[in-house]
Amino acid sequence: MSFITKPKITHPGLPKNDIGLTRRDYEGGMSTLCAGCGHDSVTAAVIEAVWGLSIRPEQLAKLSGIGCSSKTTAYFDSGGHGFNGVHGRMPSIATGAAAANRDLYYVGISGDGDTLSIGFGQFAHAIRRNVNMLYLIENNGVYGLTKGQFSASADIGSKAKRGEENKQPPVDPVMTALMLGATFVARSFSGDKEQLVPLIKAGLRHNGFALIDVLSPCVTFNDHEGSTKSYEFVRDHYDEVVHADFVPPATEITAQYAEGHALPVTLHDGSRILLRKLDPSYDPTDRTRAIGYLREKLQQGEHVTGLIYVDQSSSDFHAVNNTTATPLNQMAYEKLTPGRKGMEKIMGRYR
Amino acid sequence: MHTTANAQDRVNDFVLKLANVNGTGSASANTLLMKSMFRMGIPVMGKNYFPSNIQGLPTWYEIRVTREAYVARSGRIDIMVAMNAETYQRDVREVDPGGYLIYDSSWPRPTLLKRDDITILGVPLARMCNETFKGVRARILLKNIMYSGVLAALLEIDLDVMRALLAESYSSKKSLLDSNTQALEIGYNYAREHFPCPLPTRVARMDKTANHILIDGNTAAALGCLYAGATVGAWYPITPSTSVMDAFKSFCQKWRVDPETGKNNYLIVQAEDELAAIGAVIGASWNGARAFTPTSGPGISLMNEFIGLAYYAEIPAVLFDIQRVGPSTGMPTRTQQGDIMLAAYASHGDTRHVLLFPANPEECFHQAIDAFDLAERLQTPVFVLSDLDIGMNDWMCPVLDWDESYKPDRGKVLTKAQIENLPTKFHRYLDLDEDAIPYRTLPGVHPKGAYFTRGSGHNQYGGYTEDAAEYQIVLDRLRRKFERAKSLVPKALIDASGNQAAIVSVGSSDGAVREALDILKSRGVTLDYMRIRAFPFGPDVEKFLASHSLLFIVEQNRDAQLRSLLTLETPIEKHKLRSILHYSGLPISSSCIVDGVLAELGNEKRLVNSG
């Protein structure tokens, strides 16, 4: 349970990252989720990615709304501030936090209910603002804490645990994000750490809003036959279109790729993502074609995964607002007040 | 020209009302008239009654010329400029006997002129505009300036002052300056030729506006945000609060752009709705920036859930509620003090909030700064409850002076070194100083300072809890913290001379109360007065209530919300309280209060000391 402190055991042989920290330094409280929950794998992937990027623990701010997924911000990086806000409103808290301090890494963790129902508006507008954050949806098609209602991402024909069939069309966060102009759109699976970890790294380093929709099965309420968000169904209908390898700055790319199958994308800070196209005809920098490809695969009942779209050229939240480089929460008061002389000048207008 | 025998000499003491159609440019003429009299040293008060509409509906502007410098509506109309055919009949009716009506006589309106107790002055404004100016839009706009010229002659407003004001407005547009000046002079000359100028109701130079400004409360509140060092503003447009952010933006464009880099030392988020606006404020405040949102009643309704989060998780937030007429959408362009109860207890569960009640633009400025200091000191949302009357009307205020020694009170925020030297783990909600206010840390400063902010049950160490005792420790401290606020909020303003009966009011009702007190005194009724400036109510408020046997609670809403709050939050006996309520949507007038007090005293004379 989250109020039980996890005993910290450090083994001298544990590998250290560039700033001398082990993976244990990025852990959080004990998970209170069900055994086998996909979300715990996502937590592990986040820890791996943040450790791998050598981000100082306090440099990561963790934000979430309400729901099983939103609890997970307590289960990693106890050295960073966490904020478990109100249901569906994490994006606005993230917007304000990012406005106040542009120097931190913001990771928002949400669920399909939190993002696609109660928080759909906030999700959409955080994308429009291109807030510099990694937005992870732990998507299982079901409300867990209230015991098994369909969420807005449940597919038509998908069956609930007691056999009820969902008849409403789903909201697809990936398609929605593409339509709204998101600049980094990915989908992954909690059971595929090899794919997920580099995506999280790239998303954290992306300059702007990075969405990763992670299919993360609910073992208690949505892992049965007839569900389209079960471990088995996802594994069987899993189509990775572009695999992303994250390459830190000043690291040589050594792997060999067949011509036309690899596409390096340089991120804002000089690091790169090397995109390995598993379908050579696919172009992850072409928004319109990405949407068409997704529609096509959807008709075949396939979950397209990988880094589906990326655009490094767009302006993020702070560029659009022309904000100063110093974080606003660190500006000296003297720089913010026009002082007495300024007041005299201002008063002239109202005499 | 009709004349009446009972026209009184009302030099520097009259009300001029201008009836127009909105979207025809009358606002600039209103400002020109008011400011020219203000620059002649005469106290003036402007009230704008406008529709929730862009173009084509009736709009009125009332200028009270008041040598006594009263700030409320007097309830009478001495001169009406009736430019709107649609409201003409009603406008004619409104003029007090002995008053004047000015109308556009380009088209005859014989059937409508049915009063012989007022003086009716026809000016062929449209005809003269059409003869002089080209273009439909110019003709419509300049008609307003032309009647301003007519009024200048009739009221003896200094034409040079008006010309100077036009020159300031159109300093970079020579052709506009020329046409405006011409229109002004045509009107002026017409009146001089056709009417006996000046009228007995007129202005005469005074020296009572030196060191004063004309400013609206929303601009003053925005200026307060600028001087408080606010860097993040988040909002969703809503009348009548919009001009707070408009003004903040324009101040920031002038004063918050780094001269070297051209970068902004501020960030304004126009959110998708009020929920997101308050969310962004909470996120920014959590992260250590001074952040605020301006809104009105419907916005506060939407923000309720987040307000409870900020209260319980103890995150500073500054909200400006520029109150308008409710319930529901109500009348968005009319004024009321209808959000007192809503704001005091906003959100579900046990919540109570700090409220500040400015009475004029000067206080909007100062209380904006107080609000940020209190929000960070107390780590809680603070509401500034202004209203449309204060926020959107131009008020005469003393020139704002700035005390350079001001330092923002950022409250109990641990520095990096303090966190590093903590003997134990950081505990977010522990009452270390026994003042009911815990310490907080900011993200990004030090890993040892990290904690988990949550709206779910938490113990004093910041951990999740469902344990009854642990939960109650935090909730009880929050109650003590609210008690503590009593000594930190602005004190009530009290005028007492030992009378048993008194008036209690709040916010923009103050101007009308002060004038009513003078009128009552001239009729032999002397009352004490207390204007409450904040909630929670401090010991000064309780003492005043206890020491009077009859209290008139004056406020602008139907349900006596201030009175309710007083009965809930102080030991006052209900039977001592009498409500004087005004909720028409127009600002309260002094006559409403005088009538209310006198009617009540008919029954309760024994309680009043005759002054």
Automatic annotation (TrEMBL), chain A:
EC number: 1.2.7.11, 1.2.7.3
GO molecular function: 2-oxoglutarate synthase activity; thiamine pyrophosphate binding
PANTHER family assigned to the protein according to its UniProt record, in alphabetical order: 2-OXOGLUTARATE OXIDOREDUCTASE SUBUNIT KORB-RELATED (PTHR48084), BLR6744 PROTEIN (PTHR48084:SF5)
Keyword tags: Oxidoreductase
Keyword DNA damage attributed: no
Highest taxon of source: Bacteria
Entries under InterPro entries matching the protein: 2-oxoacid:Fd_oxidoreductase (IPR051457), THDP-binding (IPR029061), TPP_enzyme_TPP-bd (IPR011766)
Record protein name field: 2-oxoglutarate ferredoxin oxidoreductase subunit beta
Pfam families associated with the record: TPP_enzyme_C
Positions of the Thiamine pyrophosphate enzyme TPP-binding domain: 66-214
Organism annotation: Povalibacter uvarum
SUPFAM superfamilies, alphabetized: Thiamin diphosphate-binding fold (THDP-binding)
Biological process, per Gene Ontology: cellular respiration; small molecule metabolic process
Automatic annotation (TrEMBL), chain B:
Pyruvate flavodoxin/ferredoxin oxidoreductase pyrimidine binding domain span: 224-388
SUPFAM superfamilies cross-referenced by the UniProt entry: Pyruvate-ferredoxin oxidoreductase, PFOR, domain III, Thiamin diphosphate-binding fold (THDP-binding), TK C-terminal domain-like
CDD domains to which the protein is assigned, alphabetical: TPP_PYR_PFOR_IOR-alpha_like
EC number annotated for this UniProt entry: 1.2.7.11, 1.2.7.3
UniProt cross-references to Gene3D superfamilies, sorted A to Z: 3.40.50.920, 3.40.50.970, Pyruvate-ferredoxin oxidoreductase, PFOR, domain III (3.40.920.10)
Residue ranges of domain Pyruvate/ketoisovalerate oxidoreductase catalytic in the record: 23-188
Keywords from the named record: Oxidoreductase
Uppermost EC category: oxidoreductase
One annotated GO molecular function: 2-oxoglutarate synthase activity
Pfam families noted in UniProt: POR (PF01558), POR_N (PF01855)
Single Gene Ontology BP annotation: response to oxidative stress
Protein name according to UniProt: 2-oxoglutarate ferredoxin oxidoreductase subunit alpha
Organism, scientific name: Povalibacter uvarum
